[in-house]
Write a structure and sequence with these properties.
mainly alpha, globular
Length: 164
């Protein structure tokens, strides 16, 4: 992607949010860069939020994401363009928040949460793959990452159980 295209995308507020303030414009692995940006945002903001505030933030961010991802995808011409990473950001917030409630707060567990989420997001095992193939609009873009987040959380719970 050339600078002119990146500048165009960042000049539009819908695109700015959809691309995770530019983190999704990475030339390789934009979803991973979006996830890492989301992890950083979570680390900076979560200590100031109680569970109710975090739940409201997630719900509002999901709802806004449906609109933002739909508009950005329509403008770019691809429903779930790689540069659209708001879905990854909201999903990793969910993973990290629930992992914290499961007492998985160390840096190692947070890294495991990020890796697990990326594996399920990239791997798109059912039902994520069905949503990704059949729901080509903002809600589908957001939903497939939330499903991957739930799958990652189940994997983390299993790993925690096996480790004792």
């Amino acid at each position: 992607m050339n600078t002119r295209t990146a500048a165009f995308r960042l000049a539009n507020p819908w695109h700015l949010l959809a691309t995770g303030f530019g983190s999704g414009l990475a030339p390789r692995a934009p979803g991973t860069f979006g996830t890492l940006f989301g992890w950083l945002c979570y680390a900076l903001g979560a200590p100031y939020l109680n569970n109710t505030a975090m739940a409201v933030l997630l719900l509002v961010s999901f709802a806004v994401g449906v609109l933002v991802c739909h508009k950005a995808g329509r403008d770019v011409g691809v429903a779930d363009h790689g540069s659209i990473v708001w879905d990854e950001i909201v999903a990793i917030w969910l993973v990290l928040w629930v992992a914290a409630m499961m007492q998985l707060t160390s840096l190692a567990w947070q890294l495991a949460a990020v890796v697990a989420f990326r594996m399920f997001d990239i791997g798109k095992i059912p039902p994520t793959s069905w949503v990704d193939r059949n729901m080509k609009h903002g809600f589908g873009v957001m939903l497939d990452d939330i499903i991957a987040a739930v799958q990652a959380l189940l994997a983390l719970a299993l790993i925690r159980h096996l480790l004792g």
